[in-house]
Specification:
2 copies of one chain form a homodimer. With 195 residues, chain A is an all-alpha fold. Helix content of chain A is 75%, strand content 0%. Chain A binds a DNA duplex (30 and 30 nucleotides) through residues 1-2, 4-5, 9, 33-35, 43-47, 49-50, 53-55.
DNA sequence: TGCCTTCCTGGCAGTTAATGCCAAGTAGGC
DNA sequence: GCCTACTTGGCATTAACTGCCAGGAAGGCA
């Protein structure tokens, strides 16, 4: 059994992560080098790259797990529920499963104020966005005219993520004082309510 | 007058661009090095970096000009026009001002299949998005209840770009056989038409 | 306890993108 | 024909990665 290895690996990952996030917050992402993180975390540069494939993964590495959770949650919503409501439910679950709010806020700020990081983050997200499309498509086709369900599903997923992104940016801008789910609802309402 | 300089610069830029895009198409983006492009274009590596700040700019470098055009076009739409229609008009203008379709298709495919390129592209797009928000906000406030116009404007802009992105990806996937503007309209309809 | 397999770790060298610096060249004004 | 402005290319350097190899620790087995 590799239990000990796994456990010490977890500890190491957490220690590196804490060091990295602290340094990023102190001196900015671009100004912090891998060498410095490795030194302060007491690990070799080479091993750091084995834990985290890239520097960006230090910030947005665990997005994959959240993407998986989102997909599963949306799938498990009752069959009658609309695609929009199912996605909204999934978003809610991911929110509660995420980092503690303080840390999430710190990470969000870092991502939003570092253009290259933000772009990478969105790019990663786009990958699991694609996996969500078939799940959403399964909830369409009820309406009378349902032209090009694939196009429809992609557009819906893309829009939901655009709103999540916008809401998160506003949330970080307000230092987390406004409820994130409320902001998301406002964004979606601005888009879907015809004026 | 720096006319001669400007002109020879234009020529040089085009020659480098052609070389780069050809090599990217032949052997892929990651597999092509700056050294190779410089060598085949008959220019020093140092100068190449002066023409194009980064390797990514060889592919999505002229996006800035399009962003400017988009913003100006949206601004100049008649005052009564809704934000959605103004953005749609801007999109249309950008489409016609873009590369010839064949080249645009090649570039789009390259961007969508190369993660680092796509990230860079997103990063650039996020910048115009931010600049468009005040322009769009100026077209709101007409409705009866207009809560948080900033949130509203951001959500609208983000959604429009999400639909542009989705439409472009579908367009590239269909080898440009389906009209891009039509795809965009379908995406937006899927989002805004309550079912 | 001693050996062996397996996996992890660190160091070293090398690649690639990107930046700063400085010397050499070239266009245009006087 | 000189002087200034601007460009170009070569050199050195940095930072993110990657491949390779030697050394070491964990766990199984006699």
């Amino acid at each position: 059994m590799t239990t000990l290895w796994e456990r010490s690996r977890q500890v190491a990952v957490q220690a590196i992560l804490d060091t990295a996030v602290r340094l990023f917050a102190e001196q900015g992402y671009e100004q912090t080098t891998i060498a410095q993180i490795a030194r302060e975390a007491g690990i070799s540069q080479r091993s750091l790259f084995r834990y985290f494939g890239t520097k960006e993964d230090l910030v947005c590495g665990d997005q994959e797990a959240l993407g998986e959770l989102l997909k599963r949650t949306v799938e498990q919503q009752p069959a009658g529920m609309s695609a929009w409501d199912a996605l909204r439910a999934g978003f809610e679950v991911v929110l509660t499963a995420n980092h503690p709010p303080e840390r999430a806020l710190e990470l969000s700020r870092l991502i939003f104020e570092t253009p290259s990081l933000r772009a990478r983050y969105i790019e990663k997200r786009l990958r699991w966005q694609a996996e969500l499309v078939p799940v959403v498509r399964a909830r369409l086709g009820n309406g009378p005219g349902h032209p090009a369900p694939d196009t429809q599903a992609r557009a819906i997923v893309a829009t939901v993520f655009a709103c999540i992104d916008t809401a998160t940016e506003l949330w970080a801008g307000h230092d987390g004082r406004i409820d994130l789910a409320d902001l998301y609802d406002q964004c979606l309402a601005a888009v879907r309510n015809h004026g």
